[in-house]
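Researcher: Structure for this, please.
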Amino acid sequence: MAHEQHQQHGQHQHGGQAHEGHHGHGHGAEIDWAAMAPHLEAQAELFMPLYEKALSWLGKEVTEPGLIVDAGSGPGVVSCLFAEVFPGARVMAVDGSGPLLERAQARAGRLGHGDRFGTLTGELPDVLDELDYPADLIWAGRSLHHLGDQRAALAAFAERLAPGGTLAIMEGGLPSRFLPRDLGFGRPGLEARLDALEAEWFARMRADLPGVVGEAEDWAAMLSAAGLKHARSRSFLLDLPAPASDRARAYIADYLGRLRDIFGDTLDPGDRAVLDRLLDPQDPAGVHRRPDVFVLAAHSVHTAVKPLQ
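Model: Predicted structure, token format:
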């Protein structure tokens, strides 16, 4: 659920976002998850080429897993991709939001994965204690940063791995880009200024989490501290060049609209006026119509393995 909250505030990009992504510390209970679901699904589907690359890379390390857990699954777009990439595995989508997990189960059924797809509703990481047996792969896609004590959460994830099992977390990367630096109007560098506002929001979000513990985000070191071995990292690129598809334009407009709503009072008046123009469907210079809109994003994945002994 936490990852969806991240996106609710238009923050999918921070450190790379969509996360898309996932959930379960109980924060943000006021959000209407059922209403958010179509946005979350559209985002994950747009980023599917990036997830496919990441899972292909994982598949070279994780062979024939019996149980895959998507910790913070949201509506299950990536969970179902795991079911497709690993046809012999049972996939368990775990999230704090029941409505999103209902969407995940329905999606799995539509795609023919329903017989080996399950859901588990509850708050991460404690809900993982309810798993029937240890996992061969636990995936946490941009959900860990919504848990106050990330080190303790990684240790809890590691405990739920089978010997030889892999923990994979998607955290960090680069801020996404959709627009040229100079739009032809307004002050150049709008997206860099939005990044700064997002970074401040992200820091406040982290500071307000229950039980928050400050931590250097050295993921390899934290994975090793959780008792895991062979830590490695790799980043994956999403490159959808201009001219963007209608689906990409809709996502970008939704994303920028959320930033406009959240940061409207904080934005420089000139930048606010630029966003208003970018979001106007009738404006030839807006994201719905201009020919130079694109999607460029990079998300990082960090993995480590539980020792056999």
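Researcher: Any notable elements?
Model: The longest helix spans residues 190-207. Confidence is low (pLDDT under 50) at residues 1-29.
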